[in-house]
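Sample log: Fe2OG dioxygenase domain-containing protein.
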Amino acid sequence: MAPVPIISSLKVGHIDDVIELRKTKPGTIPQRFVRDITERPTITTPNNKSLIITNHHHHHMPIIDFSKLSKHNTHDDEIFLHELLNLATACENWGFFQVVNHDIDLNLMERIEKMSNEFFMLPLEEKQKYPMLPGTVQGYGQAFVFSEEQKLDWCNMLALAIQPQHARNPNLWPKKPEKLSETLEEYSREVRKLCENLLKYIGLGLGLKEDEFKKMFGEAVQAIRVNYYPACSRPDLVMGLSPHSDGSALTVLQQAKGSPVGLQILKDGLWMPVHTLPNALVINIGDTIEVVTNGKYKSAEHRAVANENKDRLSIVTFYAPSYEVELGPMPEFIDENHPCKFRRYNHGDYSKHYITNRLQGKKALEFAKIQTKNASF
């Protein structure tokens, strides 16, 4: 069977570039972005009381104080053990949490926001020097676009591989703004340290050795994606980013200061807006952790919605196992009450599967599931 042709949205020129669209035709929503009724987000407004998911829910989203883990790291310290339990509960019940006091320099976070904004405000001709080519997730443009019929997300992005070095495409690292690439490097080093530490504590919370994930994942793969969601005259018709879970082990999101609430997570069947605390980072569990814990910790489905009045910027880091590693559920999480749910597979194969398919909820994870035979009559 012939492979499905992959069509880059950039071939069509600026018509599919949401930032250009917002500049030139602020009131227009091309059909390519209008979602089918079943896929449209429910936009809540202050006048629409019945649709509001109250902040009462939001306060339950776990907040992890990283300093209580890093500065009290002795196994008999009550502060440490209490926070470790909070982290374990967050992973098991939510798959999402916010981290405060994370040790990443706030000045660095501010710089990366400022420069990212400057990049997206450059003329389209400049940004198109770094095109995201069909079937790849590096460069500027729109990812996960596989056909001319497919609905597009109301978002432009710049995505770059960070580690391993050989996965990088140096031609796609922007020359403007001048210090952007350098700042991305510095920021990525800091976020990598945070991911390594969080995985250590997540391991301890599961009763594993603290270096268990580090050993299992090998030389971790890291990528960064900066998302820009322009304001949209009809946010009820479009989707900022389609619902999906991440293929990573951990994902770290920084939402730019002053950005409207855009990230939503699916919790107990409801789409819940994430109100980011100032200077906090939002962390979520990816499919990889769901597989190795045999479903004890689950990756959470999430999406982004557009805002009628304000642009939104987010900086997202993906931290995942080496492409060479073979993964499957750890024996610690399999017993007669918890049968094995996933097969063993090569993580590189999974990554390839993930980036060559549209974002559709948790569908990518089916790649790893053990298919149970259902009797059909």
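Observation: The chain is about 25% helix and 20% strand.
Observation: The chain has one domain: 54-367.
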